[in-house]
């Protein structure tokens, strides 16, 4: 005998069907056996893993919200909260938000809270800990964003800001350098704080800006600003250490607290600054508005460092109208009134 099992005959198949029928089981039920999934971890177990996987910028934005989530739901599994529970917790976040003069009803806090939770669930789906269909954060809508109140400032206001920064405070040299850097480059605070001596190209008057989304770009600056940046790096210790460029007189690198101090001081001397909650980002709006008005959308887009390859901010046409570094250098030359080594020609203002 071979020992091999013979194929079931018609009588055996019919008997099996009869038995399954009496048991209330269909052949399809035998094929649709649900896959056994691992038990979802708790928020206290999983959120720290997500924090380790994301960038420093993401941790800075979402960190406080993740701490709140762990504090509220630390012992609960990821697959337990419902969309309604998320909405209720979001409302508690909104109610407890710190009230500032530029607050907009806690909308930003709720938006960041939901985004932070979605980030956790996005990783959980990728790790196959939950199914995308069971993602409760996906079913909770973010609050609609209100129109931005920031705008470009007129020349006389910019002059007033620079004059006040240069004649008040405990380090006018540092503050005026910070302001000029932001006005000339339209960079964000993160780009200025990340600047190092090795990011300066004095021969071509370029600075390497590293900003949000891990974006990196060379940005033209005036010879005057480049000279002051190099002197600052040399005299305040950054050149010797190779670390962060912007520093106090003691050689200690500045942080975002210097920006807070600067604008609080300016607000005390200029009530309109405090009333409108003017900040460094207003300088970015100011410069980019000027560039767009004088040099067009493509140059403004390159000046801002917007490099979305899909053209989401302006349609497919942006793929074909990208401005070059020489065009950005030309805009800087007109903006500052100084020739730039990379500008092909300089238009009159």
UniProtKB/TrEMBL annotation:
Keywords, in A-Z order: DNA recombination, DNA-binding
Pfam assignment, any one: Phage_integrase
Keyword Metal-binding: no
Residues covered by the Tyr recombinase domain: 148-333
SUPFAM superfamilies given in the database record: DNA breaking-rejoining enzymes (SSF56349)
Family according to the record: Belongs to the 'phage' integrase family.
UniProt protein name: Tyr recombinase domain-containing protein
Provenance organism: Saccharopolyspora taberi
